[in-house]
Amino acid sequence: QPKRKAAFGSVGRRIPYRILHVINQDGESLGNMHRAEALRLMDEHGLKLVLLRENVEPPVYRLMTGQQIHEEQLKRAEKKKASPKPGVVQKELSFSSAIAKNDLETKMKQIALWIEKKHHVKVTVRQAK
After folding, report:
1. 53 located within any domain
2. What pLDDT does residue 2 have?
3. CB count in 10 Å sphere of residue 15
4. What is the dihedral of CA 29, 32, 33, 35, to 10 degrees?
5. Is the four-CA dihedral 62, 68, 69, 73 of positive or negative sign?
6. Same domain, yes or no, for 32 and 53?
7. List of residues 6+ apart from 92 with CB closer than 8 A
8. What range defines the domain where residue 122 resides?
9. Nearest 5°: phi and psi at 109?
10. How many domains does the chain fold into?
11. Which helix (H) or strand (E) element contains residue 24?
12. pLDDT value of residue 7
């Protein structure tokens, strides 16, 4: 089964790599170091190690405070929520040009709800005989 992308957060002491590229909490590179040295830094400064990029050699970890981790999680959640979802839903509505006023108002409310939900709306007006 494919490896699932882990949630953004502290990896604790479970680091499968011997050599890591470490970035401090201010974003400055501390270079490559052994995982024991990275854990020592983490304990000394009271910070947490967070995996940033796993697919590079050596993998990139960052020392972060709990507040920084929380803020990053919120940013990622907002970004995910804002990104368009695959398979956009299209709604279609058709009515006659002789439609009654209250029926038209009802259908307009439905259209407004669909637009709020980010659906594509197609409206067709047929000519009344």
Report:
1. yes
2. 44
3. 16
4. 90
5. negative
6. yes
7. 121, 122, 123, 124
8. 90-126
9. -65, -40
10. 2
11. none
12. 65
